[in-house]
Write a structure and sequence with these properties.
With 350 residues, the chain is of the alpha/beta class. The chain is built from 5 helices and 29 strands. The protein folds into 3 domains: 170 residues, no CATH class; 79 residues, no CATH class; 43 residues, no CATH class. It is elongated, with a radius of gyration of 42 Å.
């Protein structure tokens, strides 16, 4: 499919105070396509926006998204207009004039072209002069060829700047920077999981990333709203420190829960009562626990004293040996009292 919005064939066409947004084609063109005839095109005070890199419709992918593509030899002018690409597929031209005649961009301060963040503007000028006619009479024709396209930073590099053109003049100052620790620069730049980025310098704008508590920052492969930071689950804010609107915090967890699902109203009265009881106990220290221990746990003095318990059992085995002539449970009864401990368990009462 050629052209996504308008296909122009001959005649003179003027666009005044118009708006074009997210127009795609499968072959060439996007918003406006002028074919190879004497078609005259005039664009004045118009706004073009490209916020998507492709469009999928009926299982078919459309990725050609040029604002203006003209093959016409007729005059072309664009004045007081803005062509803004916030997303753009690599290799797509913003404006392409293949073999135009008179081309007029008007005042350089009034017509602006913008690339997505992290892409610099590239202008290819392949204009040339063609001489035609006979030996007696010749004519030189100026054939204008211009191609405005966006070139992203190479792998491992990023930029927070946007390449731009004012009229036919490329604006200087665009720089690609080395990808910092904690960032993924496969698609310009965004924070890795459990990292949060902030701007540390302005000329040129550069980022630094810091570690975020687990379960809070960075869970998406691409940052929210085209930024470089993202939050896990339903969290939001700086360092993902709060829940999204309509959600609330949960105890002992980083998850955010819908307020409508918070029906555990019994928890807070029980928790308040528990805290109150513990506060009273630690403040007044009533002796009832000591009374319970002394009246329920009956212990023999020998049981409480391991040394007395050992001596008592040694005597019992000694008298058994004298009275019956049977050997004691441990041969080395008196030589090694500590070995005796392991020969006979302490279970039972004395």
């Amino acid at each position: 499919m050629i052209s996504g919005a308008l296909y122009l064939n001959r005649g003179r066409t003027t666009f005044l105070n118009c708006s074009f947004q997210d127009n795609f084609a499968s072959a060439v063109g996007g918003a406006i396509y002028a074919e190879e005839r004497s078609t005259s095109v005039s664009v004045q005070e118009c706004y073009f926006l490209q916020s998507k890199s492709e469009l999928i419709r009926d299982l078919q992918t459309f990725s050609k998204s040029s604002f203006i593509h003209t093959e016409s030899e007729g005059p072309f002018e664009i004045k007081n207009s803005t062509l803004n690409a916030t997303r753009n597929a690599v290799g797509n031209s913003l404006v392409k004039i293949a073999k135009g005649g008179l081309v007029d961009f008007g005042d350089d301060n009034c017509t602006h072209l913008y690339c997505p963040k992290g892409s610099q503007m590239q202008l290819v000028n392949f204009s040339n002069h063609i001489t035609t006619g006979t030996k007696d009479a010749s004519c030189t024709i100026m054939v204008t060829g211009l191609d405005y396209s966006c070139l992203p930073c190479a792998g491992g590099l990023y930029s927070l700047q946007r390449g731009q053109v004012h009229g036919t003049h490329l604006m200087p100052g665009f720089k690609c920077l080395i990808c910092p620790f904690g960032a993924n620069c496969s698609d310009n730049i965004f924070a890795k999981q459990n990292f949060w980025g902030f701007e540390e310098s302005h000329l040129p704008p550069a980022l630094k990333f810091t570690i975020c508590p687990p379960g809070y920052c960075g869970g998406n492969e691409q940052a929210n709203s085209g930024g470089y930071n993202s939050c896990q689950g339903n969290r939001s804010g700086v360092l993902c420190g709060r829940c999204k609107l309509g959600y609330t915090e949960t105890l002992y967890s980083t998850l955010c829960r819908k307020i409508a699902k918070c029906s555990d109203h019994w928890f807070w009265p029980v928790a308040t009562l528990y805290v109150l009881i513990m506060a009273l106990y630690l403040t007044f220290k009533p002796p009832f626990l000591t009374w319970i221990e002394s009246n329920t746990l009956v212990q023999d003095a020998c049981t409480c004293n391991p040394r007395a318990r050992l001596q008592q059992r040694i005597l019992e085995d000694y008298f058994l040996l004298l009275s019956s002539g049977k050997p004691a449970p441990c041969v080395e009864l008196f030589k090694s009292p500590f070995k005796y401990l392991f020969c006979r368990p302490f279970g039972g009462t004395v």
